[in-house]
Write a structure and sequence with these properties.
By secondary structure, the chain is mainly α. Helix content is 61%, strand content 0%. It has seven helices and no strands. Helix 3 (80-93) packs parallel to helix 7 (182-202), helix 4 (100-120) runs antiparallel to helix 5 (127-149) and helix 6 (152-176) runs antiparallel to helix 7 (182-202). It starts with 38 loop residues before the first helix and ends with a helix.
């Protein structure tokens, strides 16, 4: 009698799916910069000049000397009318006081610039401003004539007083910012102030 046996279970021999490949690109390998240079340059040593720590300025900051220097430069640039006025005073009075006629003529002409600027800027449309500028023209012209009517010594003192009065006139116009540009009133004020001092000292 033959003994029956249980048939064997067939074995699945289907090949397994390979693991999914990583599709991300591989990171490029780092390249030594020296390897791409010609041999003479790659082998040449790098010379680094040492920096004095006392002179070094940290990144993103400025030392106090740098800030102080930049502040002085800004002041010089902002006050350019003053420096031009001082240069004119030195050029005019550097070798002595000009004649009384010349100084009196300047005193009489100065208010005319205010009238011209006021007309161009539309400031003279207001009757009060026009009356004030006309009064200034008359007053300074009268001072100029008075300086020519007296003797030389007294005339220089009258001129010095007239120039000083016009410096005050310039100062108030500069503070108000009216009639003339601020640069002009600043320039004229410095010229009149130092010019009055020069006329008084050279009288």
């Amino acid at each position: 009698m033959t003994t029956g046996s249980t048939p064997a279970t067939p074995v699945d021999r289907t090949p397994a799916d390979p693991a999914p490949a990583d599709t991300a690109p591989a990171a490029p390998a780092s390249v030594d910069p020296a390897s791409v240079l010609p041999a003479p340059f790659a082998a040449a040593p790098v010379h680094r000049t040492p920096v004095d720590p006392a002179l070094a300025v940290p990144d993103g900051s400025h030392g106090p000397r740098t800030r102080r220097a930049s502040g002085v430069l800004r002041l010089l640039a902002h006050r350019w009318p003053t420096w031009l006025a001082l240069a004119l005073v030195v050029a005019t009075f550097g070798d002595g006081a000009p004649s009384r006629t010349f100084l009196a003529g300047l005193l009489a002409v100065m208010p005319l610039f205010y009238l011209g600027f006021g007309a161009l800027r539309g400031e003279l449309r207001r009757p009060r401003v026009l009356a004030l500028q006309a009064a200034g023209l008359v007053a300074f012209a009268a001072a100029a004539l008075a300086a020519l009517a007296v003797d030389r010594a007294a005339g220089h003192y009258v001129l010095a007083a007239g120039w000083l009065a016009h410096a005050v006139w310039d100062f108030f116009h500069h503070r108000a910012g009216r009639v003339v540009p601020r640069a002009w009133s600043e320039w004229c004020c410095v010229v009149d102030l130092f010019g009055a001092a020069a006329i008084f000292l050279l009288a």
